[in-house]
Design brief:
The complex is a heterodimer of chains A (291) and B (338). Chain A has 291 residues and is α/β, with parallel strands linked by helices. In chain A, 53% of the residues lie in helices and 13% in strands. An 8-stranded parallel beta sheet of chain A has the order 1-8-7-6-5-4-3-2. In chain A, strand 6, helix 11 and strand 7 form a beta-alpha-beta unit. In chain A, helix 12 packs parallel to helix 13. The C terminus of chain A is likely disordered. Chain B folds into 2 domains: 144 residues, 3-Layer(aba) Sandwich (Rossmann fold); 179 residues, Dihydrodipicolinate Reductase, domain 2 (2-Layer Sandwich), CATH 3.30.360.10. In chain B, helix 4 packs parallel to helix 5, helix 5 packs antiparallel against helix 10 and helix 7 packs across helix 10. Chain B starts with a strand and ends with a helix. The model of chain B has no long low-confidence stretch (mean pLDDT 95). Classes of the chains: A alpha/beta (291), B alpha/beta (338). The interface between A and B is large, with 53 and 51 residues.
Chain lengths: 291, 338
């Protein structure tokens, strides 16, 4: 994985510290062209991996990439599925069956319905695979070497202790997409224990890692212990703790954990992208010496 | 270990099941729902027992508590049955469909000294806690006005068909969305005693309102506005806020930040003259397990801690939930009068 992964929260009105800032971002990125412009700036600065949710608007970006392959030759996308709010709002309105019906592609739902719910209910893994395929459709023809499940789903499965689902996800992503499965979580230590317990070794886990322990459930101490002692491929996100930390001190903190493979960050301006990228490369690559 | 079960496995119930399942002091013994699809998933992938009849679950299993997250019309019979069987109860909001039923449940829980809590999770968000604390210090001086708001994209098209589109079953924006705001106003400011100028507007739904607007007058005489709309797709997810204007300044608070404007600095609170913004990054309540927000785990942690230490919760008692139901009734009756 690249050292620097470019995220998409800034494009889709996600700001963990301020709803008001989030709103301002949603106005700025109303047009797809505004998103493409920032991504092109990131590419020009040498960032080649974009980690994004399976938001409807990412589909438009994917079309643009397919139409202009010469500009995106080394470009990779790490999809993160599902775009949770889409489903959460649908479940409130339509219920669980209604939501499955809405998001299953084409006539698949009626195919299932014809076979009766008994069939559907005995084939959860088949259903999961169908939903993954539906989410992955927009990335056809684009290089997606790592495919993530979003934290809301990972953590829900983790709490329910339905660890077999991780195993099935893991093998399906490898088999069908020839990609490495990744997990986003707000509960990294518990997740790593669960994955290892299922025989999933050295997994890619993206979690909050920051100096003030923000969204590091269970406490910063156990996170630091796992980062030092356990074998996995950590991606650090929320390194600025939603803006509570300055970039320099935030990235310096990460440099004590040589195992961190990549840092995920989002920014909307060229200056910020460049600054953060240089900080990450300076501190993280330096710490790799002798590792 | 404290033993518990979840009744109702919709969006909230599954989320609670996950949080309860991850709690180090709790053994989640069983779950109950009428959907065979959801029960089959639990049967196939987890070790908990599954039931489609809540009475059977309560009778057969040895439990300390149940968590009830069914559609609102089932709250009364289910909570009652659980209390009769001497179980501590956590019940999703809104509490009950009628205040008569609600009062009976409050009485039963009190008489039996059982821990009783309702799922108004905003009280476990650090920013709202800070707002309440600041207001209690009297930092704003005499209060002039408040605004309680919530917006989100739940119903954005003309369709629907679950219980949430049936007013007689506790559906609609008033029960679902506005109840959160009313409860916040009630617990942070003071209890509303009168509703006036109520507007209930249907936008896309048939049979229920998608927006609630009106005035609330509180027991301390303060008045303010309620403005809630669940058909507002300019919001990515539910966004709830309370603004209070006082003689000495103003506080605006939502789940991510609290903005304080003071005409004069407050050295005691270390607040400068003019604007100060405090963020959730500094105010969040630490939790051991995170799903969708610290507040969802923090409220369960509180409930479990109350059971362990044999004390009653300060936050979200049945009685507080019942009072919110009473305000909902005031709002409906004001609307019907017009």
């Amino acid at each position: 994985m690249d050292k620097v992964l470019f995220g998409d929260n800034q494009f889709f009105a996600v700001n963990h510290a301020s709803d008001e800032k989030a709103r301002a971002q949603s106005i700025r990125f109303k047009e797809d062209a505004a998103i493409i412009k920032v991504i092109d700036q990131a590419i020009a600065l040498g960032i080649n991996t974009f980690m994004c949710t399976t938001h409807d608007r990412i589909g438009n970006l994917c079309n643009h990439i397919r139409e202009n392959p010469e500009n995106y030759r080394n470009f990779k996308i790490y999809p993160c599925m599902p775009y949770a709010h889409k489903y959460a709002n649908a479940v409130t309105e339509l219920g669980i069956m209604g939501t499955i019906k809405q998001y299953l592609p084409g006539n698949l739902f009626s195919t299932f319905a014809k076979g009766g719910f008994a069939f559907l209910s005995k084939d959860f893994i088949g259903l999961m695979e169908l939903l993954i395929d539906a989410e992955m459709k927009m990335f056809k023809g684009i290089n997606t070497p790592v495919i993530f499940i979003q934290n809301v789903l990972v953590d829900m499965i983790l709490g329910l202790k339905m660890y077999d689902v991780f195993k099935e996800y893991d093998s399906y992503i490898r088999k069908k997409y020839n990609a490495e499965p990744g997990y986003i979580t707000m509960n990294m230590p518990a997740l790593l224990d669960a994955l290892n317990g299922m025989g999933i070794e050295n997994p890619i886990i993206c979690s909050s890692i920051n100096k003030i322990g923000f969204r590091m459930s269970g406490g910063i101490e156990i996170y630091e212990k796992y980062l030092k002692e356990r074998r996995f491929q950590p991606i650090a996100m929320q390194v600025l703790a939603a803006g509570a930390l300055r970039p320099k001190e935030a990235i310096e903190y990460l440099s004590q954990f040589p195992q961190i493979e990549s840092v995920l960050f989002g920014a909307s301006s060229k200056v910020h992208i460049q600054e953060t990228k240089e900080l990450i490369e300076y501190h993280l690559c330096e710490s790799m010496v002798g590792y | 270990m404290i033993k518990g079960a979840i009744i109702g496995l919709g969006k909230m119930g599954i989320s609670h099941a996950s949080i309860v399942g991850a709690h180090p002091d709790v053994e989640m013994v069983a779950v109950c729902d009428t959907s065979s699809l959801v029960l089959d998933a639990f049967k196939k992938f987890s070790a908990v027992k599954t039931y489609s009849d809540y009475k059977e679950l309560i009778i057969k299993e040895s439990l300390d508590f149940v968590l009830i997250a069914t559609p609102t019309r089932f709250h009364y019979p289910m909570v009652k049955y659980a209390l009769e069987n001497k179980l501590h109860v956590f019940c999703e909001k809104p509490f009950a469909l009628t205040t008569t039923e609600g009062e009976e449940l409050v009485q039963m829980a009190t008489d039996n000294s059982l821990v009783n809590q309702v799922g108004y999770h905003n009280h476990f968000i650090g920013t709202f806690r800070e707002m309440k604390r600041l207001l209690q210090t009297g930092i704003l001086g005499d209060l002039i006005h408040f605004t309680g708001e919530a917006y989100g994209p739940v119903v954005t098209k003309e369709k629907g068909g679950t219980w949430r589109s049936k007013p007689e079953e506790g559906g609609g924006c008033l029960y679902d969305y506005a109840s959160h705001v009313i409860n916040l106003i009630q617990e942070i400011l003071a209890r509303p005693v009168k509703a006036s100028g109520t507007q209930l507007k249907s936008i896309y739904s048939k049979g229920v309102e998608d927006a609630v607007y009106g005035t609330l007058i509180l027991e301390n005489g303060l008045s303010g506005l309620l403005s809630v709309n669940w058909s507002d797709e300019t919001f990515r997810k539910m966004s709830t806020s309370i603004t209070v204007q006082g003689k000495n300044g103003k506080i605006e608070c939502d789940a991510t930040e609290i903005k304080i404007y003071l005409k004069e600095a407050s050295p005691k609170e270390k607040l400068e003259k003019g604007w100060t913004i405090k963020y959730i990054t500094d105010l969040a309540i630490p939790v051991n397990f995170y799903l969708r927000g610290e507040e969802y785990s923090a409220q369960i942690d509180n409930f479990i801690d109350c059971i362990k230490t044999k004390r009653q919760t300060v936050y979200n008692t049945f009685e507080q939930g019942l009072y919110t139901d009473k305000v909902i009734e005031m709002i409906i009756s004001d609307y019907k009068k017009q």
